[in-house]
Write the structure tokens for this entry.
Amino acid sequence: MFGNILCGALIASCSFATLGHAASVSFNQSNNWTTGSLSFLGTDGTTVTAEGLLYDSALPDPLFYGNPYIASWSGSSGGIGICSGDAWVNTNTNGLASCNDNHQVDGSGSNEAVVVSFIGKQIDLLSATFAYVGNNDDYELFMQGTSGLNLGLALPNDCFVCTVSNFSVGADSSFAFGAYFWDDDWKLQALEYEVVPTPLPAAGLLLLAGLGGFAFVRRRKPQRS
């Protein structure tokens, strides 16, 4: 009896390798200008990277390209910004003066985007927090793993720091937040997300079932006289 109960508990608990749960990642940290990626840690231990790209805003399938500078700041106006219009960025600092371009993610000139990747996880986005939000600031959200799927939304006027949750684009491991009008500019400060449950591979379930069957047969084997 114990073997069957144990087997059932193992299969029930291991049917999903990763359980869904809400977590968040903050970009409200100081990181110097770089053309590489920035690394952050979610509250659930997920490694989250952010890199800068430019994109053609033609829909439905924008072309991402380039390698602009990216940095992040801490504080009430902290978050991720991109510098794409200055070839002489001081990479030893995240100081605003070291970038002659707008230090936010902006749509003036080239359309800038922050690509956020959740390493080894599929996630559902629950909310996004933006800083430096003024009048008529919009953002565009792309699922990187699903060609053409995007969502363009307006941010509240003059909120400065805004958290929005009025989007539903499905699960993915990488998302792009872009500025697509000339007067759009903001910093990406934080994301709230939920890890999508990952089914255990079929081989793992078969192994568990086999172990359970072995336990059952062993229990039913008659005792020697």
Observations:
- The chain has two helices and 17 strands.
